[in-house]
Each structure stands twice: as C-alpha cells, then as structure tokens.
Design goal:
Elements: H1 2-22, H2 37-45, H3 49-66, H4 84-87, H5 104-108, H6 111-129, H7 141-149
Length: about 160
C-alpha cells in the first residue's frame, strides 16, 4: 500500500490543484505544475512551517519509491540521513532484534508511514482548498473524508 499509495496521494494533490485553479475559469489554470510541489505550495498557497517541512519529506519518500535505484545509505540502520526526520517519528518498520536492521525499502513498508503520508497530504489538501475562499465550499467533503481515515492524532509523532 505504501509503494502505490504515496505516489498516488501526491498525484491526487496535483489533480486537486488543477480543479481548484479551474473553478470558474475558462482559460487554462494559471499554475505551473512543473515546479516542485513544496515550492508551489509554499509560494502560491502559503504553506509554511512544520507542515511544509513534513511535506518536503513526503516528496522525498515518494521520490525514493518512484526512482527505485537504491544506493547504499551509508548509515548503520539503512535509512538515509536526509530522511532521518521521518525515521525519528517512529513510522518505519523496525527490526525486532536490537542492532539488526531491515533494508531501507523494507523499513518503508509500514502502515504507520502510510498514515503519516495521509496526514501530511491532508494538510496540503486543506492548504490548497482554503486558499480559494470563494470556491472552497465546492470541496468541503475532502478534508472531512481524509479526516475519517487519518485523525489529527495520526500526525507527527
């Protein structure tokens, strides 16, 4: 579920952006989806702080999934240091034996990691939807729908 779901979560966010930008517009949306999503969410929709940092990590996790040419991480636990923030949330699969570790991809195959990804995506959905005060009422069910699957308590640990 992680390896298919995380890329789909971010793709659905891109689709949501197109939908929100297209409401009431007869010309193509004035948004550049070729730029990195964290930059777009920050500059166009005002995402900042902890949520933006979490979202950057989510994009890096997605990148690791869709570009699966795993290089040695160079760490004792097979988890790359640039994603240590995610590992520190204790959402990765941990090996039951002290000192033993799974591969990076095996550690990513975690329900908790997927729940964290949904929580972060939910924050991104809300950021985008509520950036359109005149149109957001067309999308009120989305944050509520996501909330059913991922309450705030599933957020950063």
């Amino acid at each position: 579920m992680v390896f298919a779901g995380i890329p789909l979560l971010l793709t659905s966010l891109s689709s949501l952006i197109i939908e929100c930008e297209s409401i009431g517009v007869v010309t193509p949306p004035a948004v550049d989806l070729s730029q990195p999503l964290p930059k777009l969410l920050s500059e166009r929709y005002g995402m900042s702080g902890e949520l933006l940092e979490e979202f950057k990590c989510l994009c890096e996790v997605r990148n690791e999934i869709i570009h699966p040419v795993p290089l040695p991480t160079g760490t004792n636990d097979n988890w790359p240091d640039y994603l240590r923030r995610v590992k520190d949330k204790r959402v990765a699969v941990e090996h039951p034996e002290p000192g033993a570790h799974y591969t990076f991809f095996a550690q990513m195959a975690s329900h908790d990691l997927f729940a964290w990804a949904i929580w972060v995506t939910r924050g991104a959905y809300e950021t985008v939807i509520y950036s359109f005060p005149e149109q957001w009422r067309a999308f009120p069910i989305l944050p509520d729908y996501v909330r059913e699957f991922c309450p705030r308590s599933a957020g950063p640990h």
